[in-house]
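Tutorial, part two.
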Amino acid sequence: MYTTQMDAARKGILTDEMKIVAKKESMAPDVLMERMAKGTIIIPRNKNHHRLDPEGIGAGLRTKINVNLGVSEDSSDNEGELNKVRRALEMGAESIMDLSNYGKTRNFRKSLMEISTAMIGTVPMYDVLGYHEKELKNLEPEDFFEVIKIHAEDGVDFLTIHVGMNQEAAAVFNRNSRVTNIVSRGGSLTYAWMQARNRENPFYEYYDELLDICREYDITISLGDALRPGSIADATDAAQIKELITLGELTKRAWEKDVQVMIEGPGHMALDEIAANVLLQKKLCHGAPFYVLGPLVTDIAPGYDHITSAIGGAVAASHGVDFLCYVTPAEHLRLPTLEDMEEGIIASKIAAHAGDLVKRVPGSWEWDRAMSEARAKLDWNCMFNLAIHAEKAQAYREQDAPEHEDSCTMCGKMCAVRTMNRVLSGEGVDL
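Running the prediction step on this input gives:
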């Protein structure tokens, strides 16, 4: 018998979830188990999430992407958010985070669990205020843990908890000014509670109790980065690094209880700092999988932050980041629409695959090679089938049909591929 996926791996038990992931990733089961036992690969899988199609995150695996959605006070359309879930699943998102933060969120979460084959993550801190109908300063530690237990029972596969925002980290933040202060929603709420009550972060103070809940349900703990940079100017500062050091210590404590861990990271960051941040995380957190928001490589592009994050995500994945949180064109501006979500998913999937090419993940180079061969043959249908977003590629082709099938309206008869195919096959070139 085993309690968690990590516990099973350490006991040499090949679980059904491990078999599925090993097959998906073309990884030998014994290699997968060895890395899971060390904590460098995780399979987030709550025992109560019965529809889950398991995915692995970590060393040697495909870079996965996460989609954020959920209801808020200004946009509380449950069915609209569930339509986003259905579309995200169609588009191949491996993970969905329910960031609902308004009212009684459990009904939406239960509907999400009933339809989602992707892993589900939540931030229980967002739910505490609405659940207890209390002001933040009036909440007690047991209030936080009551909500965590409910999310666990509902089947959430990974919980983002800002454990590393302890009094020491807060003191470093207080001593070192920032341009954008604390931009993590959960981190800012935790900091505000600590300041209002003059107490230690309850998640840090009662971390063992939190781990016991995770172990009971086999929940992966996603150690949130409360002090992630929200601007290029704040990247890699003292507060961020102080929290990261604490997250590394918390990782080892979780592993002692066979609880799977991943580490959340920045944020906003210039291109030349990304590689160093990945190296720091992997060193300080002992190779635990790294989950990043972006990172956004410039602050000046509201409306286009799916692009700024895809640039950073590709660089981060190429240096060893394991999990990308998508960013949409609506970032910093509004709750994303369905169309915003689709744009964010595609941008993140491109970034993830670009990183996989550098990491030589099995199957990544073969996919690009197949597309190149289809282009060389001007086999449009094959190109559409291989495209990361076939619908858009096919629509572009159909909207502007060329005179000759073996060309496009960009080059027409001067198409280099058409010319070379004819010359090399001994045909004449008729322009």
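The radius of gyration is 23 Å. In part three we will examine how such features are distributed along the chain.
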